Batch of 4 targets.
Target 1
Amino acid sequence: MISVERLDLGYFTRPAAEWGGPHDREEPVLAYLVRHGGGSLLFDTGMGTGSPETDAHYRPVRRPLTVGGVDLVVNSHLHFDHIGGNQGFPDTPVLVQRKELATARAGGHTIDSLLPGVRYEEVEGEYEIADGVLLLPTPGHTEGHQSVVLDHGDRVTVLAGQAYDFAHEFGTPYRPWIGRIAELADGRDVRVLFAHDREVREGTLPTPR
């Protein structure tokens, strides 16, 4: 049995000029607690403590991350709004793609003060965490972005992070890793959950265009 609980960790305001729209927009910051036969994992950890410059730009409203008994943390990627709570789990392994960690440590990728004091464990490519729990590289938003694919038996859930910003955008543009999810689903329904959208995408997967 695999269960997924969504955690609402606040929101930030993205300026219109940054996303090319007519107005500023509020975006939720969502994490996910997964319990499975082998234990539990936390997918992303919210915004945590930022920097004055970042807070002035995004005007974040933070809600506390209050979960215990987490065996593993998985970061979709290392932007500040996904790793802010990592330092609250100093003894817990945090899985990240090798490419993503190298990019973050090179500077200019995230809030650098959020990186130390974390037990990062690098993976490269697909990585099976437990039976029915798979890490899958989903590059696009960043080159080292990863998602978690959960096999419930009768259906599949994808914790997509920021592989796409919104549910209605999923698959546009098409990215080759969607084909890998379709292969893993093998005709079953796929439910996709996002980091910055409360809407859920369900059903069949898009085909290449």
Target 2
Amino acid sequence: MSMDQPSLRAVIADDQALVRTGFKMILAADGIEVTAEAADGVEAVAAVRRTRPDVVLMDIRMPEMDGIEATRRITEGAGSEGTRVIILTTYDLDHYVYAALRAGASGFLLKDVTPERLVSALRLVQSGDALLAPAITRRLVERFAQHDEPQTTATHSDLSGLTPRELEVLRLLATGLSNAELASQLFLSPTTVKSHVGRILSKLDLRDRVQAVVFAYETGLVAPGRDA
């Protein structure tokens, strides 16, 4: 780890010991501290509450409690506001990945991820950014949103709290546009767009851009298969 990189603490949750060991070796080689390992979702939630890591690498399919429910409990739990969850999966367009994003995950990685990509992903979400590009999130939402029961949005602030400009930014963000693309389309500076996105996340009590894309579809602000 270079001197200018902040310290990072992680929990690895996977029911296969060899997978946990492999990821732990990769992270340790880059100076990332693994505060705990977990073989199921129950252990993962307990490990997060006990060690307060920055990031959790979370397998989806585990005994006792799966990674989706564990993610939900972690992201909604008191005292874990600073903890981000990255889902580990073997297939990117997976219904369970979408469910995990709905539960609060900040992105996902395929299990055959390169060591460099793994480390950079953890540092990215530690900084508060989302791991997935909005376009990838949109593909997941459009593929699976219409097949699920509508998600309650009672835990979020009402959309009426957004200004007309913020609603416009959220609609465009949900279609997969980056900040640079948003700035170009709206004739705004990148700094102004970043400020708008930050206020949207704050007003709606959302953790990151991934959650903003999911929220836009879940509330009907953007419909699957239709551009904003």
Target 3
Amino acid sequence: MAEHRSMQRAALLDAARSLLSEGGTEALTFPALAERTGLARSSVYEYFRSRAAVVEELCAVDFPVWAAEVAAAMERVPSAEGKVEAYVRRQLALVGDRRHRAVVAISASELDAGAREKIRGAHGGLVAMIVSALGKMGQREPRLAAMLVQGVVDAAVRRIELGVEDPSVVTEAAVAMALRGARG
């Protein structure tokens, strides 16, 4: 029974990823989740009490995987500058990934305070990955610099999502800006 519930929950999360990736938060509805998974709409409520709960669970499941991929990319390079570059490049490389697209599609204003706080905490953990590297690069305020580098990444993600420029052009510009700023 527990295994069946676990499989159903995983199917619901996978359907939620698809819906968010395809149509943003407006597409994530309980009727749509029920249709995608073949469950009755009332059954969806047995797993999640609200759309915010689905989003919160997605972030809890997907964000650590995404962060681990960024961390692994950073570990492969020895220099502080290389770590900052890997941090930017790996996040931007993940833009096309369904897990990432789902997280980006989520509007924090639709979530309750607890869910927003969990997402902020997870995001803070991601930003913390480059604080040390920025300190080694001579930044007097490495935590602030890390937040600003993440701002460059966030802006680049939005540009890639718009599809106006070639993603490689956006990535190179973001890396150049982040590294120039990191060097001071």
Target 4
Amino acid sequence: MAGVNPFRKGPKGDSGPAAGARPREETAPVPADPTALPTERTTGAPRERGRRASLAALAGPAGRAGGRLRLGIAAIADRLIATAPRIPVRDLATLRAQFPGLTPEELADKLVAGACAGTAAVGAGVGAAAMLPAPPAMPAELAAEITGVASVEIKLIAELHEVYGLRPAGNLRQRATACLTSWSEERGIDIAAPASLNIALGGQMRRELRQQIMKRTLRNLPNLMPFMIGAAVGAFMNRRATRRLAEKIRRDLRAKQVPWDALPTPDG
């Protein structure tokens, strides 16, 4: 019978396995390690452990998720850029006709209260939608909330500039883009600096817009909690965020406010 002669002497004359022969346990296939990475679960594959292996294991899924998030934020930014010129904004004459007898501060208070109610309603609607058994729709719901809230707040910013006598220069699209920049930076528009109005749709503006959307996305995640908790949280957080944004904008505008009687008449 072919095999290894256990009585054959080795190279130095010692009894034992034949020269060059190895024990069975050394030649048996190494079983797959259940804790190994997928690429290591074969015999002879290198075993990589520690920080390097952890990073390699996470890089794939995390990279794909990060790519999807960046694409989603870029899509929302493009949607806001396209939507901003179509947001209906009331001029000062219309606002004064709708709210007669109010001072600029009183009129601004009315506008802020209405915007807070609007963004709270958007947050409550998305929170209620989180009760539905449709998890794949949640990213779309979140994007819709950010777009809806941004539209209300951009309208508020444009009308606050009207109230404080600081309408941005340019045509409708240029004014809308200036208000979108104001929303991204959370500050009033400096109409005395034409250069600040000419960066519309530039790289810096788009980066700031994406950063603002990212911040809103992270802030709005609790709105997706089920059992109507998300509706209450969404309404509260959106109302608070809109009020804070309005306070920042109004603080900037008060420093450069133009009295109503100093504004040129529509005919002049």
